[in-house]
Design a protein that fits this description.
Layout lengths: L11 E5 L4 H12 L3 E6 L2 H13 L4 E5 L5 H15 L4 E4 L14 H29 L3 E6 L12 H21 L4 E8 L5 H7 L2 H10 L8 H12 L10 E4 L7
Parallel strand pairs: 1-2, 1-4, 2-3, 4-5, 5-6, 6-7
Helix pairs in contact: 1-8, 3-4, 4-5
Length: 255
């Protein structure tokens, strides 16, 4: 039996939304597994602070301040990474946004923003990275941080659920089309993770109580829970896993 490896040595891992929250945790876990990092984020100050912290720990980091909704900037980010690091072995699409609002009250500009960040940016960045992987001819991994809300409905989250449902379907199509190039594409579907995106919602005691009631594990998730799943899917141990959605949710969608 061949040795099973969960290491990412000599790999370049690109993480969107890498300045904080789950993206930051994914970056740290990937670096601990041996990877060099490319962090993409719109928050310049937080991005530089995260890069500095990782460098202090001895990890190689290329921070790129970027608006993911700017498609020309995506081209530049991929080109810069190829110029400076020579390749992209793993892409983790982690950046996301949400606004809690009733479906009947959602304005067009809010819809457009959420869909642009959560789905359109992922589509076109993945397309550009996949092209670089195909040209390199060495395979690769693309991991989309989806959501339990791609699998179940959620009140006050009509646009978010729509974007994540689309992302799950995109994951499946990408997995099928890129399989011939030895590129595995998977999604991770966390439930509520304790990050900056959810802090305000968690302060609503009634809302938080309902969340805990729905999770069989009786607690929300932590960044480390998502990061561990990413390292697994990015590693050689998951080379035969593609088109899959891995729930990291304490049993949330098992009801």
């Amino acid at each position: 039996m061949a040795e099973i490896s969960f290491r990412l040595d000599n790999k370049v891992v690109m993480v969107t939304g890498g300045a904080r929250g789950s993206g930051q945790g994914i970056a740290l876990a990937s670096a601990q597994a041996g990877a060099d990092l490319v962090l993409l984020d719109i928050r310049a100050d937080e991005l530089e602070a995260t890069a500095a912290e990782l460098r202090e720990l001895g990890y190689q980091v290329l921070p790129i301040n970027i608006d993911l909704c700017d498609l020309a900037a995506l081209d530049e980010a991929v080109a810069q990474t190829m110029d400076e690091l020579g390749r992209i072995d793993v892409l983790v699409n982690c950046a996301g946004t949400n606004v809690y609002r009733q479906f009947v009250d959602v304005p067009e500009e809010e819809y457009d923003k959420i869909m642009a960040v959560n789905l359109k940016a992922v589509f076109f960045l993945s397309q550009k990275v996949a092209r670089s992987m195909i040209e390199a001819g060495k395979g690769g991994k693309i991991i989309n941080i989806c959501s339990a809300m791609a699998l179940v409905g959620g009140e006050m989250r009509a646009v978010y659920c729509t974007s994540k449902g689309g992302l799950l379907q995109l994951t499946k199509v990408m997995a099928i089309e890129l399989a011939d190039h030895d590129i595995q594409v998977n999604a991770i579907a966390p439930t509520f993770i304790r990050t900056q995106l959810n802090i305000e919602a968690f302060q609503d005691e009634e809302f938080y109580s309902e969340i805990i009631r729905r999770i069989p594990a009786h607690h929300t998730g932590e960044v480390e829970d998502v990061a561990g799943a990413v390292v697994y899917l990015a590693s050689p141990a998951a080379d035969f896993v593609t088109g899959h959605c891995l729930s990291v949710d304490g049993g949330y969608v098992a009801w």
